[in-house]
TrEMBL record:
One of its GO terms (molecular function) is pantothenate kinase activity. GO terms for biological process: coenzyme A biosynthetic process. Pfam families: Fumble (PF03630). It comes from the Bacteria. This is Type II pantothenate kinase. Coiled coil: none annotated. GO terms for cellular component: cytosol. It comes from Leyella stercorea. Transmembrane segments: none annotated. Keywords: ATP-binding, Coenzyme A biosynthesis, Kinase, Nucleotide-binding, Transferase. Gene3D superfamilies: 3.30.420.40.
């Protein structure tokens, strides 16, 4: 069996997948460590061990992500290339959704947006709002940066205690804006707001800002299919934020099966791509 390994190396988290000869994704995993090199080698070793893969079974190792800049030698002596991250985002999302025309939105520490139009895959922008924003504000306001804890708190929150809705400022609906649309994020927050309300408000603020940036990025393109990838897609609150935005703007937000591993999948798929750089 020959397998291509795709590795998305973050600063503290590494995601790794294999693509076998049949083109199937094999057992994606995620490993956290204190630095990218430790994270990479820890993830790689665990992946090989858990899947009973020998080094001679690995045809190619493809690296991507910001942490890959710290790796400038072949991994375990194997043929090792680097894949451009935005290309990997597009290839992974296309593999997962079978869409040829879409915007791929990577919800990481910040948010990047990649336009895919057939084989034309290019980065078109992004915003500095993402998981890092949620962690930082949660650290300040909730005294925790554990995203799972913040999401659990948010499940008990009441959004009307935080946001101003259209119905709060208008007696009649505005054209294109239902009464339950958000007029102001955190505009209704009170000094005595509960931790649960704050947690829910923070998550909605981050996710809705990303949705709005995505829609604005799509204007003039005719694209209404948005593929959302990255760790924040695992938040339970996306089940409420994304559909609300879909109804408002007539678009579709898709979350692939392996949404958090799409970039690693795309790195593996970019093997032999002319945009790779061989060590």
């Amino acid at each position: 069996m020959k397998i291509v390994i795709g590795i998305d190396v973050g600063i503290s988290t590494t995601k790794i997948v294999g693509i076998n000869e049949e083109g199937d994704v094999v057992s994606p995993i995620r490993i956290r460590a204190t630095d990218p090199v430790t994270s990479l080698y820890g993830a790689f070793g665990k992946y090989l061990h858990d899947n009973h893969i020998q080094l001679h079974d690995v045809e190619k190792v493809m690296l991507t992500g910001v942490g890959s800049a710290y790796i400038n030698e072949p991994v375990y002596g194997l043929p090792t290339d680097k894949a451009e991250e935005f290309l990997a985002d597009g290839l992974g999302a296309r593999y997962e959704t079978h869409l040829d025309r879409m915007l791929v939105v990577s919800l990481g520490t910040g948010t990047s947006i990649v336009k895919c139009d057939g084989d034309d895959i290019k980065h078109i922008g992004g915003i500095g709002i993402g998981g890092g924003t949620l962690q930082g504000l949660s650290r300040l306001l909730l005294k925790t940066d554990d995203i799972k804890q913040v999401a659990a708190l948010a499940e008990e929150g009441d959004l009307s205690h935080i946001n101003v809705l259209i119905k709060d400022i208008c007696t009649n609906p505005l054209q294109g804006l239902p009464m339950d649309a958000i007029a102001s994020l955190f505009g209704n927050a009170k000094m005595n707001a509960s931790r649960e309300d704050i947690a829910l408000g923070l998550i909605w603020m981050v996710l809705q800002s990303i949705c709005s940036a995505t829609i604005l990025s799509s204007l003039g393109s005719g694209i209404k299919e948005f593929v959302m990838i990255g760790n924040l897609t695992l938040l339970p609150q996306v089940r409420h934020v994304f559909p609300a935005t879909e109804r408002l703007y007539g678009v579709k937000f898709r979350i692939p099966r392996y949404s958090e591993f799409c970039t690693a999948i795309g790195a593996a798929l970019s093997y032999r791509n002319v945009q790779s750089t061989t060590f």
